[in-house]
Design a protein that fits this description.
The complex is a heterodimer of chains A (110) and B (115). Chain A has 110 residues and is mainly β. In chain A, the strands form two sheets. In chain A, strands 2, 4, 5, 9, 10 and 11 form a six-stranded mixed β-sheet that branches. A five-stranded antiparallel β-sheet of chain A has the order 1-3-8-7-6, with no helix packed on it. The N and C termini of chain A lie far apart (37 Å). The model of chain A has no long low-confidence stretch (mean pLDDT 89). With 115 residues, chain B is mostly beta strands. Chain B contains no helices and eleven strands. Chain B is globular and about 40 Å long. The model of chain B has no long low-confidence stretch (mean pLDDT 90).
């Protein structure tokens, strides 16, 4: 079974709005990572948050991690049409072994 | 350019045929892995390797073999292709296990269809 589960499964917003997606996982982790996948392409690493961190920023991305609730959220601020993609969370052990959720499909309309 | 290279990008097989998906990385990464991605699902781990000569099973290993004779290469073998193996396959690598978090680099994927 998959370690992470994203919510919602799909999200449709307009340019300029913020997009928030959540990820829940089951077992203890070393770190949690978020990836983006454009249609038909490989995955691109977005941001990594360690298990002892609570919040991290990278450009328009903000990630939070609550290890007590085994959950994380990804916020994309001021979304653009180019942000249209599927977003996956993945938990990682110390070796880098990743377990992915099913993803959130985000559509940003102009 | 440095990165993870997968070949082929597309492949059609008949049921029962065998083939090898190639994966190579030039970043001297210790950890390499294979995933499959089916429609509407995230990536599921097939096999992984923590270094040359060491491999282990992931979540969905049945029907696949791997070997890791060099640090650079991690081929995935389909022994007798089945329609259920129709999927997109991704290879990934990540750096040495120093105890520090590392992010993974992914290849562009191989789209496999078994008819």
């Amino acid at each position: 079974s998959q370690q992470g589960e994203e919510d919602p499964q799909a999200l449709s917003i307009q340019e300029g709005e913020n997009a928030t997606m959540n990820c829940s996982y089951k077992t203890s982790i070393n770190n949690l990572q978020w990836y983006r996948q454009n249609s038909g392409r490989g995955l691109v690493h977005l941001i990594l948050i360690r298990s002892n961190e609570r919040e991290k920023h990278s450009g328009r991305l903000r990630v939070t991690l609550d290890t007590s609730k085994k959950s994380s959220s990804l916020l994309i601020t001021a979304s653009r049409a180019a942000d249209t993609a599927s977003y996956f969370c993945a938990t990682s052990d110390s070796w880098g072994k990743l377990q992915f959720g099913a993803g959130t499909q985000v559509v940003v309309t102009p | 350019n440095a990165g993870v290279t997968q070949t082929p990008k597309f492949q059609v097989l008949k049921t029962g045929q065998s083939m090898t998906l190639q994966c190579a990385q030039d970043m001297n990464h210790e950890y390499m892995s294979w995933y499959r991605q089916d429609p509407g699902m995230g990536l599921r781990l097939i096999h992984y390797s923590v270094g040359a000569g060491i491999t282990d099973q992931g979540e969905v290993p049945n029907g696949y073999n791997v070997s890791r004779s060099t640090t650079e290469d991690f081929p995935l073998r389909l022994l007798s292709a089945a329609p259920s193996q129709t999927s997109v396959y991704f290879c990934a690598s990540s750096g040495p296990n120093t105890g520090l978090p590392v992010d993974a680099f992914f290849g562009q994927g191989t789209r496999l269809t078994v008819v």
